[in-house]
Specification:
The complex is a heterodimer of chains A (about 180) and B (about 200). With about 180 residues, chain A is mostly helical. Helices cover about 75% and strands about 0% of the residues of chain A. Chain A has one domain: PhyR, sigma-like (SL) domain (Butyryl-CoA Dehydrogenase, subunit A, domain 3, Up-down Bundle). Chain A is built from 7 helices and no strands. Chain A is elongated. The radius of gyration of chain B is 26 Å and the shape is elongated. Chain B is built from 9 helices and 6 strands; from the N terminus they run ααααααβαβββββαα. Chain B has 2 domains: about 60 residues, no CATH class; about 130 residues, no CATH class. The C terminus of chain B is likely disordered. Classes of the chains: A mainly alpha (about 180), B alpha+beta (about 200).
Chain lengths: ~180, ~200
């Protein structure tokens, strides 16, 4: 196989594998990212960036294994960078304000709104720990591998997130 | 006196309980800590309380209905210029002005024909508002108490009739109400041919 054909073959393989990843993970990742950043449009942009990175990586090395852990790690890093950038630039009137407009009416249950309100008050690392475990369904050790920390640290972050969630629920009951 | 380190350890145990990863000895250690630490009782609560709070996360996950299709989205985003050209050549984007009969070209399926779903109506109702379907070319006028709030908005659609964006051109003064009106407008499928006046 000459070089041009080899490159074309690798591109096709990378495209097919990225396509498979998109089909399997697009909903999970975009939901996770929307919870992280609180904005559907931004979540979609970040999700695309994750898959684009995956495509570039697979194109460079078609034999590379990209699993859910890699995708969530890339998504988390993208979300944390975005949140920090937004904080620095202060482009929005209220930092991480819950934008109900980006949520469908049928998703605006008390639970959904309370969770998003709590997430908006958390440090992104705490949000990521809570979402990767109780929302995306990974164990604390799997989440720890994605976040580059220990499972004990993940459990502590979940606990701190839970405290905030508890106070949000209490506020909701007092209203 | 309970040390700070013991409370940090208790946080880790509470996290394990929250995630359903705690063994019986973890639960027992947590209970023992709470028995001597009023601060953690107040801040974290007992096992039941932890499970109650975490049930909210599960409930929120169950409520999630958003299933974006990135491939369709990319296809839509690839044609923004064409979409805006189309909107421009149509002389006016699909414009709906509350309380005022729209003078521009109208879509074959104007939003006034869009029946507000029970869920959408509920979202508006919780604002203490009432909705009333108006005549063709009109959007909702929302009655809040004795006052009638009018919101003017403009919806831009692509060549397939899929709404791209909604912009409030005249606010009712109530941001939540404005958002709900736009949300409703974005859920309508428009007819681009009719909007071009054909």
């Amino acid at each position: 196989m000459d070089e041009a054909r080899l490159v074309a073959h690798e591109t096709t393989v990378a495209q097919a594998r990225t396509e498979a990843l998109v089909v399997e993970f697009q909903t999970k990742l975009s939901r996770y990212l929307r919870r992280m950043v609180g904005d559907a449009e931004v979540a979609l942009d970040l999700t695309q960036e994750v898959f684009l990175s995956a495509y570039r990586m697979l194109k460079a090395d078609p034999s590379r294994e990209l699993n859910a852990g890699w995708l969530y790690r890339a998504a988390t890093n993208g979300a944390i960078s975005f949140i920090r950038r937004r904080k620095i630039l202060r482009m929005l009137p209220l930092d991480r304000e819950v934008d109900a407009n980006s949520w469908r009416v049928d998703e605006r249950s008390a639970a959904s709104v309370d969770l998003q309100t709590a997430l908006a008050r958390l440090a992104p690392e705490q949000s990521a720990a809570l979402l990767l475990t109780s929302y995306a369904g990974y164990t604390s050790s799997e989440a720890a591998a994605m976040l580059g920390t220990t499972s004990d640290a993940v459990r502590q972050r979940v606990c701190r997130a839970m405290r905030v969630l508890r106070s949000v629920m209490r506020e909701g009951m007092e209203r | 006196m309970i040390s700070r380190g013991a409370c940090v350890k208790a946080e880790s145990l509470a996290g394990a309980i929250a995630l359903g990863e705690a063994q019986e000895n973890d639960r027992e250690a947590y209970r023992n800590h709470l028995a001597g630490c009023e601060r953690c009782v107040t801040a974290l609560g007992g096992e039941r309380e932890i499970e109650r709070v975490m049930a909210l996360v599960s409930a929120a996950r169950e409520d999630e209905r958003w299933e974006p299709d990135l491939r369709k989205l990319l296809a839509r985003r690839r044609t923004p210029n064409r979409a805006w050209l189309w909107v421009g050549s149509a002389a006016a984007a699909v414009a709906l002005i509350a309380g005022i009969r729209a003078s521009g070209p109208r879509p074959a399926t104007p939003p006034a024909h869009h029946v507000i779903s029970a869920q959408e109506a509920h979202a508006l109702a919780v604002l203490d508002t009432q909705t009333a379907a108006r005549g063709e070319g009109r959007a909702e006028s929302l009655v809040v108490g004795a006052a009638t709030l009018s919101t003017a908005f403009e919806v831009s659609v692509d060549e397939r009739g899929v709404p791209i964006r909604c912009k409030i051109t005249k606010s009712s003064g109530d941001r939540t109400l404005d958002r709900n009106v736009c949300l409703t407008a974005m859920h309508v499928r428009y007819s681009p041919r009719a909007a071009q006046g054909r």
